[in-house]
Amino acid sequence: QDGKVIENSEATILGPNAGNSVTDELCSKQKVKFGDPDDFAAKGSLKSMGEALDRGMVLVLSLWDDSDVNMLWLDSAWPTTDAPRKPGVLRGPCPGGRTSEPEYLRQATPQSQVTYSEIKVGTIGSTFSSRRLGSAEYV
Question: What are the C-alpha distances in Å from 75 to residues 46, 90, 93, 119, 135?
Answer without folding.
Answer: 25, 8, 6, 23, 33
